[in-house]
Amino acid sequence: MKYMLRSTFILMEWFSGCFDLFLFQNISMRIKISMILAITVFVFTVAMGQKVNWTSDGLYYTRLKDGNMIRVDPKTESETILFKRESLIPSGATEPLKVQAFEYSSDGKYVLLFANTAKVWRYNTRGDYWLMDLNTQKLRQVGLKLPPQSLMFAKISPDAKQVAYVSGHNIYSEDISSGIQKKLTTDGSKKMINGTFDWVYEEEFHLRDGFRWSPDSRHIAYWQLNANAIRDFYMINNTDSVYSQIIPVEYPKVGEKPSPARIGVVSLANSVTRWMKPEGDPAQHYITRMEWSGPNELIIQQLDRKQQESKLMYCNAQDGNTRTFWAENDDAWVDLSTDNPVGWNWVNKGQDFLWVSEKDGWRSIYKISRDGKNTTLLTKGDYDIAEVKSIDEANNYVYFTASPDNPLQRYLYRVKINGTQNSPELITLPSQKGTHKY
Questions:
Q1: Average pLDDT for the chain
Q2: How do 79-83 and 211-213 pair as beta strands?
Q3: Do 143 and 172 contact (CB within 8 A), yes or no?
Q4: Which pTM does this prediction carry?
Q5: CA angle 254, 259, 261 (to 5 degrees)
Q6: In degrees rounded to 5, what are phi and psi of residue 173?
Q7: Where are the domains of the chain?
Q8: Higher-confidence position of 57 and 346
Q9: pLDDT > 90: what percent of the chain?
Q10: CATH of region 52-183
Q11: What is the distance between the alpha carbons of residues 47 and 53, in angstroms, rounded to a whole number?
């Protein structure tokens, strides 16, 4: 399957070259096609950026409408205003915040608002964060002493008492009730990156958010990338001024080593970091997934430089020792389990997890036991799944998108988590042919 894909890519490159030669002779057609491609990319980007903010009970979702935060009942489409746009006007300002994303605390008492955003590589992941106390309707800025528009990936702790974020390549925590800020890492710089990533990790592995709260809210696990050996590739900006500008981008060329990455666990009590110790040279391996798997344990995915070997490991957060419990290899490359590398699909009270792999030649969903000794194929058949969309463990189903008969289309399917189902059940109405997004 992968060799067919690589052949397809080569053919696409060849056709692209021929197509360019033809279009060069027809400027008007080239402009039209360029406009179509630009519109397609824009629509795709907007669609990819959409997110539904469900309430913790799963009965409602919240969204912004006319500047107001509203709660929507999906059954009746009735709307309830949670707070009005006037509440989003900061002290000393005349206009409300232009909120672009938000997140509720686990206890439902606070909402974390993301505004005044700026693009980092492809996405707007840097900006200002504000906390709204839903009981008092009071608004205050997070990281107030730091430079404006410098905070990234702010997240409220599981116990709803702290908020953590990245600024200037360092990780901070901030007490919600007092506003007291603590700098958890101090070595961050353009070349020493804590809690986020360089260009390669975003380009290759879709990684941007580089830290995770522990379940007990006492520690934060994070990636650190050492880019000191990465040289700059110079790009030319001809659009922002009359004279062109040179833009340096850290970029390892073919044959150069990428930024070595390591995982640290920092204590909020004393700001001391414990480093994990996975096997292998950090400059010849990537760490592409990392989550907490227990109170003092992490689970990580490590890929070799050629991306032909994937290992899943447990890391002891107290002493840094690691052990590999599951691995797969591919002569072509090991594809990523997901394009959204946040979270881990645990089931059966943490005794198993769901994992997407192409180890049988097709992109399939497997259930893997926590110790890695038992692997069960859930999506049986000669077809690729696209994405895991939802897990309904109470009713023994995992939902996913796929199109077994036509790769140009997408439909919603489900199979049983216990592995007893031989073929997927189509959920999308059969009469609705085409591509569906869920």
A1: 88
A2: unpaired
A3: yes
A4: 0.86
A5: 140
A6: -120, 155
A7: 1-50, 52-183, 186-200+207-329, 345-438
A8: 346
A9: 76
A10: 2.130.10.10
A11: 15
